[in-house]
Design brief:
Layout lengths: L1 H7 L16 E5 L1 H4 L5 E6 L3 E7 L2 E9 L2 E11 L5 E8 L16 E9 L9 E7 L8 E4 L3 E10 L9 E6 H9 L5 E10 L6 E6 L2 E4 L2
Parallel strand pairs: 8-10
Antiparallel strand pairs: 1-14, 2-5, 3-4, 4-13, 5-12, 6-11, 6-13, 6-14, 7-8, 7-12, 9-10
Length: 217
């Protein structure tokens, strides 16, 4: 249920800034310079502690969850025909163990990022891709969310086999991923969210997120 509620709070807020004509970049988060400006909180069970911290000589977002589930989301409309690539950095302190994240009881992740197409009041039309740091699933695994099914598709971008306490830089073609998973060429997404949650496993997770932005290439 926490997944479904997070999807329904994201609506449409158009904010687009071209940094250069031939190399467009649209900032989603600038944790290093702006902190949590324009990010909102959605709580489901308790509160994951999100705060800006200095790590490796740079300010980043720290997320600490103790048997809790709350996420941060930002309403921002992005034209995937112009800037289809999502870029970010993340790291975790340790993976969660003994969980089947493809089940409702195991739907916890040390780190995850959602890309959302909002259905507005027609919430049943909301679709999302959720890039996760998987626990038991292999890297590259794809499955429907345990709570809302194929409306929200999960992709294991990292797994427990990846080294902990290490930064990883990611780049995903969101337009391509939506077309592969939902069968249609999506032009606009309406928001992005991130969450570190351990409410089902009643455990602890610590993760870090760097700046997030969309780019033309």
């Amino acid at each position: 249920m926490k997944y479904f509620l997070l999807l329904t709070v994201i609506l449409i807020t158009p904010i687009n800034k071209a940094l250069a004509q031939n190399d467009i970049q649209i900032a989603i988060s600038s944790f290093s310079t702006e902190g949590l400006k324009n990010w909102k909180t959605q709580s489901f069970l308790g509160s994951t502690d999100y705060q800006i911290t200095l790590l490796d000589k740079q300010y980043v977002l720290q997320a600490s969850s103790h048997a809790s589930a709350s996420g941060l989301y930002k309403e921002q409309r992005i034209d995937l025909h112009k800037t289809p690539f999502l870029n970010w950095r993340w790291r975790i302190h340790h993976p969660l163990t003994g969980l089947n994240e493809q089940s409702k009881s195991g739907d916890d992740f040390s780190a995850r990022i959602y890309i959302v197409i909002s259905g507005g009041w027609a919430f049943w039309q909301t679709k999302a891709i959720n890039y996760v740091w998987a626990n038991s699933s292999k890297k590259g695994a794809i499955w429907p969310n345990a709570f809302v099914g194929k409306k929200a598709m999960m992709i294991a971008l990292r797994s427990s086999m990846d080294k902990s306490s290490t930064w990883y830089s990611e780049k995903r073609n969101i337009r391509k991923d939506f077309k592969q998973l939902f069968g249609s060429d999506i032009q606009y997404i309406d928001g992005i969210a991130l969450m570190t949650d351990t409410d089902n496993s009643q455990s602890h997770a610590l993760a870090y997120y760097g700046d997030i932005y969309f780019s033309a290439k």
